[in-house]
Amino acid sequence: MSTRKHTLPLTTWSSNSLWKAGPKPIMVLCISLLIFGIGEGLLVLSSLGSTPWTVLAQGIAFKLDKNVGIVSFFISVAVMLTWIPFHQKPGLGTILNIALIAIGLGLTTYLLPAPNNLTLRILLTISGILFIGISSGFYLTCHMGSGPRDGLMVGLYQATGWKIGLIRSLIEGTVCFIGWLLGGVVGLGTLCFALGVGWVLQNTLNFLAKNYTSRTTH
């Protein structure tokens, strides 16, 4: 019997391999990761607070007097080490996660102007959270590997069977709090993201499981 209590839904676009897939899984994977990046770009343009993991990187960088980009890289490496006890494995989705999210983020912040109106900034924050939560559900159900932070979330989900929305919120909330204690900058957008994105993801996965499941989950 498998020691894993739960897995993500297997959909009509799920791949049987971490590195090889047909056109449909690749298309869903690439589009959803680009949308994920657009969501991150919208959060940046809102100027209402960084994501929790960025807050953590800011806090560590402040304490160590290091570049936040370098710190963020080493955080990603450290988080991937937590995959080991959960038997998570990288795949094509892990590599594309790094590249396509960066492209979506870069294009969004380059092409769209940052609004000064508070209402528009709040709308960008809400849109960014929705984009990231929904696109995460699609790219994760491709079953071609997670990004470093999502891999930790999936590993905990498989090991505990807790609701993935709860796990994501606990991770984001903890990371945000530690980053804030270390001196990272927290804003309204940060708190909304930490509390909301996990439940957007949870509802997306529930919707996909009910409407697009192609094989029995295990």
Key phrases:
mainly alpha
In short:
With 218 residues, the protein is an all-alpha fold. It contains eight helices and no strands.
Can you summarize the main beta sheet?
none
> What string gives the helices and strands in order?
HHHHHHHH
Distance between the termini: 11 Å
Shape: globular
Tell me roughly what share of residues is in helical segments: 55-70%
Radius of gyration: 17 Å
Low-confidence stretches: none
Count of helices?
8
Structural class based on helices, strands and sheet pairing: mainly alpha
Total E-strand runs: 0
- The fraction of residues in strands falls at under 5%
Describe the protein's architecture and organization:
The protein has 218 residues and is mostly helical. Helix content is 69%, strand content 0%. The chain is built from eight helices and no strands. The protein has helices at residues 23-46, 52-64, 68-81, 92-111, 118-140, 148-160, 164-182, 188-211. Helix 2 packs parallel to helix 7 (164-182) and helix 3 packs parallel to helix 6 (148-160). The mean pLDDT is 91.
Write the layout of secondary structure elements.
Elements: H1 23-46, H2 52-64, H3 68-81, H4 92-111, H5 118-140, H6 148-160, H7 164-182, H8 188-211
